[in-house]
Amino acid sequence: MIQIYHNPRCGKSRSCLAFIEDTKQEYEIIPYLTDTPSFEELKKLLKELNIQPNELVRTKEKIWIENYKGKDLNDDQTIQAMVDNPILIERPIVVKDGKAIIGRDLDKVASFLD
Q1: Which residues carry out catalysis?
Q2: Residues pairing with 89 in the sheet
Q3: What's the CA gap between 76 and 58, in Å, rounded?
Q4: How far is CA 94 from CA 45, 67, 102, in A?
Q5: What per-residue confidence (pLDDT) applies to 103?
Q6: Could you give the CA distance from residue 76 to residue 60 in angstroms, rounded to a whole number?
Q7: Contacts of residue 18, Cβ cutoff 8 Å, sequence gap at least 6
Q8: Mean pLDDT per segment of 10 residues, for the chain of length 114 residues?
Q9: What is the pLDDT of residue 23?
Q10: How many CB atoms lie within 10 A of CB 93?
């Protein structure tokens, strides 16, 4: 089953969800802002994405700029910052068969879901 880590206030996330709905495949919405992934879940998600924690952070968010920018955070500290402030997690994230992508580009989502 497809999972989408979704923020309904984000246009890219809404577009990705609409695209997934159009595929008629079974999917689950994870409202990550209210159902925040745990530290271990986020670590697993990063492994499925095959990226480093800092690559998943929305560095232009006010909370990042005010609290973390310029600090030398290790991977665990970066993951914890996202757990503590889920708005920092890039979205949408699409998961299928143990792999994941950041679904901002619908052409990539289409290839990923095929």
Answers
A1: 10
A2: 57
A3: 16
A4: 10, 28, 6
A5: 97
A6: 20
A7: none
A8: 97 97 97 97 98 97 97 97 98 97 97 95
A9: 95
A10: 24
